[in-house]
Structure prediction request, 258 residues.
Amino acid sequence: MKKLFIVLAMCGLTMGSMAQETTDPVQKYSVATNSFWSNWFIQVGADWNAFYSNEEHGQGLARSPFKSFRATPGFSLAIGKWFTPGLGLRTKFSGVWGRTVVDENKHSNKTWTLNENVLFNLSNMLYGYNPTRVWNFVPFVGAGINRNCDANCYSMNLSAGILNTFRVSKHVGINLELGWNFAESDFDGVSYSNIEGGRVWDSHDNKFYAEVGLTFNLGKATWDKTPDVDAIKALSQSQIDALNAQLNDANAENARLK
Prediction:
């Protein structure tokens, strides 16, 4: 599991540096807040899940995320909204094939997860809003519920991960996501525990996933540049000065005629 954490961290650092390289400083500018109905998006994706249960603690099972007794494909649907270029919310449904990992035999079950995520677009927050940026680096955190349909039980979970979006057009993007769901110990349908002390994640059920999908931006998907107040004030003052000059000329002409 330590290797998985290291992989996620290295991917995050790499993606962050690449997001910085794709920033065009000419395009950076302050933006005005849009209406509530603007900047919504829908995501669809396919993922690969690896389950790590609290019941396997101390058994020395293989940790590879590709072992058949802990790995399974899945899919996801999500809808979200950006409230600013750097801050958004997303509601995400994912499922539906899971694993109960108690030994090296494959134990399948049906599960789904519904999470609410807070999204932080660090590319926009750190380097300025750029509507044509190719790569956006978006860490997220959240919480939600899991449902194990086979065991007929619910459990709570916390979530965290890295969402990376690649711009194809104004309304379409490709997304690559790496994530972690940290759930209660009965997420996999098994309520007993082998834990006596140990690390925090060993006492809970964990799901790590890698996902690729599409993002569809709905309606107004960009942000307008805020007016330059100083420029407007300068323009207004110059217009006032021009009117005063014209009035002074007219008064001088009237005085000459008299």
In short: The CA atoms of residues 136 and 242 lie 47 Å apart. The domain at 2-226 is CATH 2.40.160.20 (Porin). The helical segments are 2-21, 122-127, 229-257. The radius of gyration is 27 Å.
